Amino acid sequence: MKKLINNPTNVVDEMIEGYVKAFPQYVKQLPENKRSLVTAKETRQGKVGVLIGGGSGHEPAFMGYVGDGMADGVAVGNIFASPPPDPIVEATRAIDKGAGVVYVYGNYAGDVMNFGMAAELADLEYGTSVGMVLVTDDVASAPKEESHKRRGIAGEFFVTKAAGAAADKGYDLEEVVRVAKKANDYTRTMGVGLTPCSLPQTGKPSFELEENEMEIGLGHHGEPGIEKGELQQADQVADRLVADILADMPLHAGDKVAVLVNGLGSTTRMELYIMFRRVEQILSKKGIEIHRSYVGDYSTSLEMGGCSVSLLKLDDELTEFIDHPADCPMYVQR
Amino acid sequence: MKKLINNPTNVVDEMIEGYVKAFPQYVKQLPENKRSLVTAKETRQGKVGVLIGGGSGHEPAFMGYVGDGMADGVAVGNIFASPPPDPIVEATRAIDKGAGVVYVYGNYAGDVMNFGMAAELADLEYGTSVGMVLVTDDVASAPKEESHKRRGIAGEFFVTKAAGAAADKGYDLEEVVRVAKKANDYTRTMGVGLTPCSLPQTGKPSFELEENEMEIGLGHHGEPGIEKGELQQADQVADRLVADILADMPLHAGDKVAVLVNGLGSTTRMELYIMFRRVEQILSKKGIEIHRSYVGDYSTSLEMGGCSVSLLKLDDELTEFIDHPADCPMYVQR
């Protein structure tokens, strides 16, 4: 598979270099660790820091979400691989303004281990209090009774948004953690994969799907989904994704949600809008109000084909956080 | 090629329907013509209207750029086909606040004919004064001495931004036209194609490229470029694109530019940041200052693979327009 890259071993470092050069008013690399990026703006003392991160290949996640009202720092791993503790600890130290730091990250073994170790190290070495928020929005990745085993995918955007808004509003560490966990508890995502991506090092497809096949629940790194079958029309696919979400998190007439239709990489915005059209029809028919919509590439899997639908159930508190302004290179909300 | 669509003949209407449902606070369809979208916000009397449009398949262009500080309306054509005069006239009528309307559109035979006819009809039927701004940023599409024959591609974003800002600042029709034409005169784009897209109706690739081949100067609808050759590394490709731009529009130490690295559809942001990295190195070495950077999918060709680099040379006046805030579904600038 063709890629506009130089030496495949340098893609992550060159990507970061390009990103920081493109948006110097937003982000800077730490001199101690080039995989640690923090906001370039002055953060006020006493504000809780929000730290995100994970493997590369999901751009604009995660580094695109460092900015006002969102995250203060990010630790960047290799492609589809967790960052080690070092860049996490360095970023933690840089964004600790005396009120502690909240880690928001997806539920993957490597991330759980490395963010966990980093939290211990940050406490031991710098006395920083760290709150942990694990994102587990992927309905397809484990049954409801084992929802703590679920992976984190596109819904992490909502959790980051809630944590960033709460921190920006001056909430303390415990409260930012509470709000972010609530956003995770109220978020569900279901995805569908159509075509594989390839890692720059190998150039080989990450999984196989037949020419007219799709896979429901396919993971963001090509983890097996729950059902392979013939590619269906957009309306049928949307019906299936929303049905699985609602079976897991029932919504009723009068409920209010935020909707994210997320592209996995090579899926056109035309297709995403067509998918959104059906999602809106389903929700509207049930009397569920869409408070805010997000349609585009928010968390990709390199050039994978497909999309996901995330619903965040909103109460008054979460609505306030979702409506809070944000200003990042990859997401601006006035 | 797999797509998340329903009946291929309905893709454009379903896409528009989804788009308007996703962003009702920004855009609305006109009851007179469902291919005419206008801003959902109240526009003040006496403000010059800015109208954009063209074929579908370039999303988020063009409809994603209707909003505060950008365009007031858009006419949406079929995939890769100009909208007919009707939706253009209807949108013109809706956004005319007594100060006339400026059309910003790419230099393609169909668009030239249809926007031209629409301008005459709007004048005849409603007495609306229309100013015309043809975008001709694609260096590869005609030699310098025939630059008026060049096609409009991703640089149209800069021209729309300038026109939208000037209109928002209260400039009159003649002045908005002058500013937008100046932005076009100061913009150059060079692109590279790696992989084809396919039209929903046919499902067939729009052109052929060998597995290790790229095409410099490939058009946004698959129009032949100026050179096919072996896929090179990102740095070499960036060197070539920028060299061709600078040969056409010389820049010198101390000059200031805005840079847009635009993805054509399936190219990852990782690759776009790597491309930007090199563009920044080249400009920085020459002492050219990058005032503002844009990296992402601003004008696509369905799921085509590849990217383009646009440079807008900035003087004080254009800097002011580029820095002007904007608030559209697909582009927000604080």
Describe this structure in words.
Chain A has 334 residues and is α/β, with parallel strands linked by helices. Chain A has 2 domains: 10-135, Dihydroxyacetone kinase, domain 1 (Rossmann fold, 3-Layer(aba) Sandwich); 187-322, 2-Layer Sandwich (Hypothetical Protein Tm841, Chain: A,domain 3), CATH 3.30.1180. In chain A, 32% of the residues lie in helices and 25% in strands. Chain A contains 8 helices and 14 strands. Chain A has a 6-stranded mixed sheet with strand order 1-2-4-3-5-6, with helices on both faces. A 6-stranded mixed sheet of chain A has the order 9-8-7-12-10-11. Chain A has a two-stranded antiparallel sheet with strand order 13-14. In chain A, strand 10 (256-263), helix 7 and strand 11 (289-296) form a beta-alpha-beta unit. The N and C termini of chain A lie far apart (39 Å). The model of chain A has no long low-confidence stretch (mean pLDDT 97). The interface between A and B is large, with 64 and 64 residues.
Could you give the topology of this structure?
Two copies of one chain form a homodimer.
Chain A: H1 11-22, E1 27-30, E2 33-39, E3 49-56, E4 73-79, H2 85-95, E5 101-106, H3 109-126, E6 130-135, H4 156-168, H5 173-185, E7 187-195, E8 213-216, E9 227-230, H6 234-248, E10 256-263, H7 269-285, E11 289-296, E12 305-314, H8 316-323, E13 326-327, E14 332-333
Helix pairs in contact in A: 2-3, 4-5, 4-8, 6-7
Organism (chains A, B): Ectobacillus funiculus
EC number (chains A, B): 2.7.1.121
Protein name (chains A, B): Dihydroxyacetone kinase subunit DhaK
